[in-house]
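ok trying this again, last paste got cut off
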Amino acid sequence: MLLETLLLASLFLLFYSIKVGEFPEVNTIKGFIINMGLPFTSAAIVFFITTLLFMSPFSGALFAVLGWQLPGWTREHFKNQKLKVYKEHTKNFITSAGGLYGAGLVTSEVIRTLAPRFPEPFASEFQSMIARRDLDPQASIPKMLNEIADRYNLSELRAQAAVIASADNAGGPPAAARGSKRLGRALRLRDELIQQRKEATYEPQIASVIVLCILGAGLVLDATIWRDYFKDGGQMALAFSSLLFVVITLMARRAVKVDDID
């Protein structure tokens, strides 16, 4: 039993390394739990369930690869959704700042005016910037904006910081207004191009979902309604179907996923 378990674990790690590639980095206890503990628990649960369902530890090991990936895919989805919201707020900030600069306000006044109008975490970040500026009039607002951009992975805010820094050196509020408005137009054009690229991936996404639904439905029917046909020596047929399903799932995800538009 121990030998079979070690063999299955070796097959799982080999299959994972070939199809997925890198293992998560582990830096802290929290990072270990998130990056290793959750995937391992998910893989173990999926292995147990699918081994019983498909009557083969080999099938269970194959589906455990998807179980390992599931927490990471879920975290990535919610992270991208949160980042999308932050980027939308950043674009609103740039547009609003352009209007306020056009009215003759300086950068500190722009930040002070906009801080109460934005949701968290921007409200707190802008309030913190104002407090630091009040304590130290020499504190660099572009530098503080860059710190926020690094904290939340907002390249748009980094670009706005560069606009403000250039305007502080030459041109003042009028230059900042022109730069902010140009940046806003560039971001809108980028969003339109990104949307076009997303639309171009809709058809392969739909096709891959249809194929996986057909394969998945066939597997479930084989493991339930037609289970008796696979009890005596038919487990390898189920294992082959499981292998096909797992490989197509991983390939489909890689084929339709475009990193710079997710």
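PB: full thing came through this time. The chain has a mean pLDDT of 85.
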